[in-house]
């Protein structure tokens, strides 16, 4: 039997041991439940945000005396926010110790830390660029996790076999070949995402490969060649491609490139498909995913995971993902019972674009399209593009030239706002001669608008992308012709290509991307509740609040532009010959008429705001580039020239500030003389303020 001295020695050893902390995931849960950011916790504990990230990732542990304070805080939070399903704590005993413990860590350890204002929102104003284990990122509107996919939609595989998933999950992946990786992903990883529409399909799991992981699996670290890297593919005789084929897996027609899709034919309802993305092959374009390729695997997983949750699991470039999102939200078919046989068959899903590609009307096509080349069409084309206009210098007034600043206003996702409640054609176009114009019918109209003269030449024409006055009959989309009617002019179409079946095809696409955009801005501290002054200040610093969430925001914006541009993807590659059908024409979503409708509505909306601005303030734009307009200003802020009512509220109809799609934000400020100098040289000041963001990308 042990002696009393030995027992006391053992007890003393236990007392002298460092305190034990809850598991890393529980530490993050408790902090999130308390509504405390990692940055604020780091300040209270006199450490760095990265250290807090490491504690919640399980990469490191705090040392005394910080360890004691951290444990004390966690115990206090644990009493206030018990884990779901845990036995309730004894309230009286806990209540006496919890509150003082938490407050002592906040105040005694960090007396300089400013208190949180009483009016602060319940949700943190921003999300630190921290670990992926973040329950607070899941909005209340999100559905419960699908038990079929317990580990989320994707993982980032590093060279050491660690696969980093969403919410801080780290899986052990034993695969040493691409074939083993595909089979592990489908059988063991628990990755994937449920369908976005009840008639749709579940999202295939995505595995993102770091350079080290790619090399480990037998892939080259880089793809080199004379073509753009995103167009490069592994040759068919590459060992990895041979392995895939030998194992009876298939590659899509795109081959094994930066975004490789490996699949087998579905067995019943079970899909067998894995999407791979190779980071070192430029899978994540820097323009759409700024800085993401250089992040740590856990942070890459967080960026892509948030995007997958709010938008869609990436399936290629953001342009491809934008197009895939349209189909995921509006599946082309639905199951329907055959009345004769009683069997379930695949039937057309109303409101969708169906399963078969549809040729456009000749004026809606491009010059190289088979419809044009085969018919010898010479009747002209739709020219519905975004604005690229500069006011002639001789139309500048002396008063404008004496103003000290040129201020750029950019509309938040203007083309997304234009997609809202937009009625587009769902059926093939029918040809009409001398039809009566109907603003409710989507289509293309040949009409002469050259007789329309604007009240003031300091505004661009709403009918042409370069702002010049039309010179004769031309093809216009319905919204452009309807705006001419709105301005009080009679329109008499010569002919038209119209669609009988119509619908708001883009509505669910708009709603999902709008929510994603607004929620991500809110995570960066830009919310709808801010005043205009607070909004401008928040937009000034939002990219620095959290680089990972800023990357998500950039990807969402690129998804909007790329998805719309992809509706009219042009042929790519040197081998293409005019008149041949290129691959994009084989999909139902090759719809240049829908793209034209979005751009037409966006340009008309922009002109309407400029016209109302001139009426309310007497100010006219210096230049317009896409969704950015430059105004002369007496100050360096939009608040110096935007119209406000006596009550302080912004006037409706003109440009307004705010985070919602279609509202404006400050894009840049330059000296007025600088803008005039650009205009004299034939340059668009908006291009220099905005960085040349002028066109809708037509595909990657």
Question: What features would you describe in this structure?
Answer:
- This protein has 700 residues and is α+β, with helices and mostly antiparallel strands.
- The chain is 34% helix and 14% strand.
- A seven-stranded mixed beta sheet has the order 3-2-1-4-7-6-5.
- Helix 3 crosses helix 4 and helix 5 packs across helix 6 (91-107).
- The longest helix is centred in the C-terminal third of the chain and has 26 residues, at 592-617.
- The radius of gyration is 29 Å and the shape is globular.
- The model is unreliable at 88-143 (pLDDT under 50).
Short description:
Helices cover 34% and strands 14% of the residues. By secondary structure, it is α+β, with helices and mostly antiparallel strands.
């Amino acid at each position: 039997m042990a002696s009393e001295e030995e027992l006391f020695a053992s007890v003393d050893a236990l007392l002298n041991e460092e305190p034990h902390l809850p598991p890393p995931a529980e530490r993050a849960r408790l902090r999130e439940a308390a509504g405390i950011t990692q940055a604020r916790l780091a300040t209270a504990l006199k450490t760095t945000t990265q250290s807090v990230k490491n504690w919640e990732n399980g990469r490191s542990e705090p040392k005394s005396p910080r360890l004691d304070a951290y444990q004390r805080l966690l115990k206090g939070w644990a009493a206030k926010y018990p884990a779901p399903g845990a036995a309730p704590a004894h309230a009286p005993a806990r209540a006496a110790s919890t509150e003082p413990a938490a407050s002592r860590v906040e105040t005694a350890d960090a007396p300089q830390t400013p208190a949180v204002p009483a009016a602060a929102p319940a949700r943190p104003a921003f999300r630190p660029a921290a670990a992926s284990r973040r329950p607070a990122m899941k909005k209340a509107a999100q559905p419960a996790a699908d038990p079929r996919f317990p580990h989320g939609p994707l993982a980032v595989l590093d060279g050491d076999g660690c696969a980093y998933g969403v919410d801080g999950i780290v899986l052990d992946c034993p695969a040493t070949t691409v074939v083993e990786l595909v089979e592990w992903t489908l059988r063991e990883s628990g990755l994937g995402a449920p369908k976005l529409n009840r008639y749709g399909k579940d999202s295939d799991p995505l595995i993102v490969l770091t350079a080290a992981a790619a090399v480990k699996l037998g892939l080259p670290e880089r793809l080199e060649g004379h073509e753009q890297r995103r167009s490069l593919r592994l040759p068919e005789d590459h060992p990895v491609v041979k392995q895939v084929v030998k194992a009876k897996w298939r590659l899509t027609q795109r081959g094994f490139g930066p975004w490789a899709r490996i699949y087998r034919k579905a067995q019943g309802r079970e899909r067998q498909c894995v999407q791979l993305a190779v980071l070192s092959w430029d899978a994540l374009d820097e323009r759409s995913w700024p800085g993401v390729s250089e992040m740590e695997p856990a942070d890459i997983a967080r960026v892509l995971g948030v995007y997958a949750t709010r938008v869609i699991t990436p399936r290629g470039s953001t342009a491809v993902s934008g197009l895939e999102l349209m189909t995921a939200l509006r599946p082309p078919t639905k199951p329907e019972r055959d009345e004769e046989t009683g069997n379930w068959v695949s039937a057309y899903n109303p409101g969708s674009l169906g399963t078969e590609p549809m040729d456009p009307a000749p004026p809606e096509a491009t010059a190289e399209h088979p419809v044009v080349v085969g018919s010898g069409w010479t009747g002209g084309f739709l020219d519905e593009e975004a604005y690229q206009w500069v006011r002639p210098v001789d139309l500048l007034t002396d008063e404008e030239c004496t103003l000290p600043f040129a201020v750029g206003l950019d509309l938040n996702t203007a083309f997304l706002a234009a997609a809202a409640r937009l009625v587009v054609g769902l059926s093939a176009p029918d040809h009409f001669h001398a039809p009566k114009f109907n603003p409710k019918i989507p289509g293309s109209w040949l009409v002469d608008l050259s007789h329309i003269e604007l009240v003031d030449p300091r505004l661009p024409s709403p009918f042409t992308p370069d702002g010049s006055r039309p010179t004769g009959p031309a093809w216009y989309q319905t919204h452009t012709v309807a705006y001419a009617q709105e301005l009080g002019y009679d329109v008499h179409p010569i002919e038209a290509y119209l669609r009988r079946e119509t619908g708001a095809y883009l509505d669910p696409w708009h709603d999902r991307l709008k929510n994603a955009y607004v929620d991500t801005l809110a995570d960066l501290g830009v919310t709808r509740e801010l005043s205009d002054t607070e909004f401008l200040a928040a937009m000034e610093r939002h990219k620095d609040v959290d680089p990972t969430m800023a990357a998500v925001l950039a990807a969402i914006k690129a998804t909007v532009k790329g998805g719309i541009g992809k509706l009219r993807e042009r042929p790519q590659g040197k081998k293409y010959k005019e008149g041949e059908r290129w691959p994009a024409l084989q999909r139902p979503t090759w719809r240049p008429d829908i793209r034209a409708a979005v751009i037409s509505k966006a340009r008309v909306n922009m002109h309407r705001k400029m016209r109302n601005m001139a009426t309310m303030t007497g100010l006219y734009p210096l230049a317009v580039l896409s969704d950015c307009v430059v105004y002369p200003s007496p100050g360096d802020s939009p608040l110096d020239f935007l119209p406000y009512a006596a009550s302080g509220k912004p006037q409706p109809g003109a440009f307004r500030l705010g985070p919602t799609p279609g509202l404006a934000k400050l894009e840049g400020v330059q000296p007025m003389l600088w803008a005039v100098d650009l205009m004299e040289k034939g340059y668009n000041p908006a291009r220099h303020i905005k960085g040349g963001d002028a066109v809708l990308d037509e595909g990657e």
